[in-house]
Amino acid sequence: MPGTASPERDIVATPVQRATREALYAGAIALGLFVLFIGLKTDQNISNELILVPRWPLLAAVIVLTMAGRFFYVAYGQPFLASQKVADIATGLLPDSVATRFFRLPYFIAAIAIVAVLALLAGSLDSLLGPGLAGYARFARALAIIYALASVLFYFRSFIHAHFSVLGIAALAVYPIIVVLVLALYSGSMAGGFQGSLKWVDNFGIQILIYVMLAWGLNIVVGLAGLLDLGYVAFYAVGAYAYALLGTHFGLSFWILLPAAGAMAAFWGVLLGFPVLRLRGDYLAIVTLAFGEIIRLVLINWREVTNGSAGISGIPKVSFFGLISFNVSDPNYIAKVFDIAQSGAYYKIFLYYLILGLCLLTAFVTIRLRRMPVGRAWEALREDEIACRSLGINTTTTKLTAFATGAMFGGFAGSFFAARQGFVSPESFIFLESAIILAIVVLGGMGSLVGIAVAAMVMIGGTEALRELDFLKQVFGPDFTPELYRMLLFGMAMVIVMVWKPRGFVGSREPTAFLKMRRAVSGSFTKEGHG
Amino acid sequence: MAGTTLLDIKGVQTYYGNIRALNGVDVTVKQGEIVALIGANGAGKSTLMMTIFGAPRARAGTITFAGTDITQLPTHEIARMRIAQSPEGRRIFPRMTVMENLQMGASLDNLKHYEEDVEKVFTLFPRLKERIAQRGGTLSGGEQQMLSIARALMARPKLLLLDEPSLGLAPLIVKQIFDAIRELNRTQGLTVFLVEQNAFGALKLATRGYVMVNGNVTMSGTGKELLANPEVRAAYLEGGHH
Q: Which segments constitute the ABC transporter domain (chain B) (predicted)?
């Protein structure tokens, strides 16, 4: 019978036959999708007329790649994934996981060997292989380093999992020291070590930690209290401009202005809180989004005070509580005090520890608050507002404290940002920033500090790392700028994480209360179903 | 032991937009009583329950609790008068553990009596003790109902409002819950006002009862009187035995 032919054919067909068929379907779909997107391009000719430029080879390449991908996935990927779920009948054990097969000791040794050889040849790489191949060699070295580190993490995974917070804080605390020492060894001098550390400490360390702090601050509003805030960057801007204006006009020190900026941001948090008290969900999101834009537009247009889109420059540096300065001209400049060579790296390392301290303060306050009545009330508010009220909780003050506390940490981060940049302009506080911070909170798993920190590291560190992929220029030509694709990768990463872990990296909520003895709750209660 | 009037509802009218849900309702609950309010779907029973808590607020009439007019008080202030509620649909906090739910119930006194009260609640509902570290949302329906009542009791209420405590539960669990309510009333003198569709069980439990039809109280009397009343039997009991 023709009607039932298709399913029967499915059973009879070998994976390769099925894969061929599905590859053809995929190719047809890709053709339909991309014939206009990729196959044709509009352009201008010399006389400024609009012309169509066909790009058939590129279209063909995309379709062939799609078909090949579908073919290999159906023919080999799916049977492989299925076999991962089938226990060995004789032993009842699952086969080796992909991870254990991927991280094998011989591979690890090989990776170390590659790193060692390439590191020894580092200086003469260009002359030995020519600039093109040397680029690939450096890439291979980077891959080998990542593989070796990943293997170490994999072998010690249970230990790491058990002590994640402590290990994480320790690693962050020694990170600049290790960077300086490694680079000093590499370049053969301490000064070279400090100089080279700039990029690693500033672009990676400080940049990531600023976002960790912002995301942890927003987490109080979104993750704990469940109030969707799309304008969080407004408080970041308030903090930054508070320090920039008061610091440049009145010469007040960072250590006075940090709490002042926090208080000011908290005040604006309450101001935003009042009109939105009765809103929830999408309505709240729209209003907070508008609030973020209002603050930005005020910063652009109130030229007399904010200097408009030109921004404020010459923002004073932070000093070490007034004792040690990082301005070369000051008598107590750090290099003069300790009698060492001048370098901009000291300031960056100092800033790194400053933002690390601010992050830890945020985490500490969040953890303490969660165990206090107000923190519990935030979480209860997220779960059920009506039930909260009928238990005697004043939801008005609860919401306002959530907005104020979250905004305060945004303000701290903002004043730090201004001090670090030495320059602020409204361009730093666009909606995209709010979106990125919110994305980090969601990807990390709302409410989980560890998850959010990991998400910030992956997202911000990942996009920073794209700047390092210079070898791609050799593949795609000198016009290729990898950092332009960071938003694309950002989006792809978000889709993948949301498919793979719909509740974020750490989706289960850590309870705050225990009855004397702690009884473990199986994670399976809260995880999304997976086979 | 019928004592002084604890809750006095007089001529209360409540609206949803322009639709009148309560038509001038009079109900009194005296100290130490169990009072049941029965009626069909949409009669306005839950609306009355919520109106006591000011959400929605009564547009006419007064609600007096222990001599204080609470008609215009904000919801959380009403709760602070020591009226606790196990609301319609239980409304426990699903992602918080049983223990955290109970702590939320005790937040009026800032957990001052928490340790003491939690033991009392566990003697009443031993099942909750077994589930202490489990998330509220993972409990069975009956356990969630127990948690909802237990959470209300953690506030040391003078008056306990229960909205359909038997909804969707197996007869055995309903019996457990009704037994617990009777026990609370007998040993601690707790005043209870409950709304029920399970008219038979509720009237058997109650000292007095009210019958509500279309936003009006049409009948009242002791539990026994109402159980024996032919109209009540015809409308709510016949064919609906438990």
A: 7-239
Q: Are residues A90 and A125 in the same domain?
A: no
**Does residue A2 fall inside a structural domain?**
no
Name which of A391, A512, A521 to mutate to probe chain B: the one with the most chain B Cβ atoms within 10 A of its Cβ. Answer: A391
DSSP A429-464: G-HHHHHHHHHHHHHH-TT-HHHHHHHHIIIIIHHH
The answer for B163, left when phi > 0, alpha when psi is -120 to 50, beta otherwise, is beta
Identify the domain containing residue A115 by its residue range.
100-153
Nearest CA in chain B to A507: B95
- Which residues of chain A from 390 to 429 reach within 8 Å of chain B, CB to CB? 390-395
What is the C-alpha separation between B109 and A393, in angstroms, rounded? 11
Residues of B in contact with A387 (CB under 8 A): 87, 91-93
Which of B92, B95, B116 would you mutate first to test chain A, the one with the most A CBs within 10 A? B95
Q: Within this chain, do residues A283 and A135 fall inside the same structural domain, yes or no?
A: no
Interface of B with A (CB under 8 A): 53, 55, 74-76, 79-80, 84-85, 87, 91-97, 99-100, 103-105, 107-108, 110-111, 118, 132-135, 138, 151, 155
Helical segments of A220-344, H only: 233-250, 254-273, 281-301, 303-306, 334-338
> In chain B, which residues have their Cβ closer than 8 Å to the Cβ of A508?
none
Nearest-CA distance A391 → chain B (Å): 6
Q: Residue A5: inside a domain, yes or no?
A: no
B133-178: pLDDT as tens digits: 999 999 999 999 999 999 999 999 999 999 999 888 888 989 989 9
pLDDT tens by residue, A307-363: 989 999 999 888 888 788 888 787 888 777 787 777 888 889 999 999 999 999 999
Q: A256 and A373 share a domain?
A: yes
Q: What is the pTM of this model?
A: 0.82
The dotted CATH code for B1-82+157-242 is 3.40.50.300
Q: Residue A494 and residue A488: Cα distance in Å, rounded?
A: 10
Residue type, A486: R
A455-514 pLDDT, tens digit each: 999 888 888 877 776 666 666 667 777 777 777 777 887 788 888 788 887 777 777 766
Residue B195 structure tokens: 């709304």
Q: Are A494 and A439 in contact (CB under 8 A)?
A: yes
Of B31, B156, B152, B48, whose CA–CA distance to B91 is shortest? B152
Identify the CATH number of the domain in which residue A502 sits.
Answer: 1.10.3470
- For residues A135 and A473, give the distance between their C-alpha atoms in angstroms, rounded to a whole number: 10
Which H, E and C letters describe A462-500, residue by residue? HHHHHCCCCCHHHHHCCCCCHHHHHHHHHHHHHHHHHHH
Shared domain for A89 and A142, answered yes or no, is no
CA dist B146 and B128 (Å) reads 8
pLDDT band at A420 (very low <50, low <70, confident <90, very high): very high
